[in-house]
Amino acid sequence: MKTILVVDRLSDWKFDLPELEVITGKDYLSNSFKKGTGRVRICNVCNSFNYQKLGYYVSLIAAARGDKPTPSLTCIEDIKNQGMIRLVNSELEEVIQKSLESLHSNSFVLSMYFGKNLAKRH
Length: 122
Known about the structure:
- By secondary structure, this protein is α/β, with parallel strands linked by helices.
- The chain has 2 domains: 2-78, Oxidized Rhodanese, domain 1 (3-Layer(aba) Sandwich), CATH 3.40.250; 87-117, no CATH class.
- Helix content is 36%, strand content 18%.
- It is built from 4 helices and 6 strands.
- It has a 4-stranded parallel sheet with strand order 2-1-3-4. Strands 5-6 form a two-stranded antiparallel sheet.
- It is globular, with a radius of gyration of 17 Å.
């Protein structure tokens, strides 16, 4: 399955990965790119997923076209749900604290890319 990364602006993406096509959200919504045949995986990394914002519409239109958007609309709605946020926060607090207990500094930078920590410790 072909993967397309959707960003707000092409300048937002600094990496050159030949197997990954990078397009803007506006290009995806206007269908002004070469999709090819079959379904595609859409990695939507637009800045905002609020209702009527670019990221929201990219996932909405991707689902309507039969593509596979990440995040899905269900995920976007779950993130906005305050009850879900409280539930996840309470369940993850202990796991987060345990993972970070070995740190002895006042500041910490955690780099996450597509749900993975590069250091593979957190």
